[in-house]
Amino acid sequence: MKEFFAQFAIPHPSLLIYIAMASMIIGGIALVAIVTYFKLWGYLWREWITTVDHKKIGIMYLLTALLMLFRGGVDAMMLRMQLAVPDNSFLDAQHYNEVFTTHGVVMILFMAMPFITFFFNYLVPLQIGARDVAFPRLNAISFWLFFMGMGLFNLSFVIGGSPDAGWTSYFPLASNEFSTSVGTNYYMISLQIAGLGTLITGINFITTIMKMRAPGMTLFKMPMFTWSALIANLIIVFAFPVLTVALAMGTLDRLFGTQFFTMDNGGMDMLWANLFWVWGHPEVYILILPAFGLFSEIITTFARRNLYGYNSMVWSMLMISVFSFAVWTHHFFTMGQGALTNSIFSITTMAIAIPTGVKIFNWILTLYKGKIVITTPMLYALHFLPLFTLGGVTGVMLAMSAADYQYHNTMFLVAHFHNVIIPGVVYAMLGGLTFYWPKMFGFMLNEKIGKATVWVMSTGFLLAFMPMYITGLDGQARRMYTYSESTGFSLLNMVSFIGAGLMTVSFLMLVWNIWYSFKNSSRDISSDPWDARGLEWATHTPVPVYNFAIVPNLEKGSPEAFWDAKKNGVELFKGKIEDIHMPNNSGQPFIMSIFFFIAGFAMVFSMWPMAIFGLIGVLATMAVRSLEDDHGYHIHAHEVEETEKSYDKGGAK
Amino acid sequence: MGKVNNNVPLEYSTEENNLKIFGFWVFLGAEIMLFGTLFASYFTLSGRTGNGPTGAEIFEITPVLLETFILLASSFTIGLAIHAMRLGSKKATMSFMIITLLLGAAFLSVEIYEFMHYAHIGAGITVSAFTSILLTTLGTHGLHVTFGLLWGTFLVIQIAKRGLTSVTAGKTFIFSLYWHFLDVVWIFIFSFVYLKGMM
Question: Of A146, A241, A549, B91, which residue is the least packed, with the fewest Cβ within 10 Å?
Answer without folding.
Answer: B91
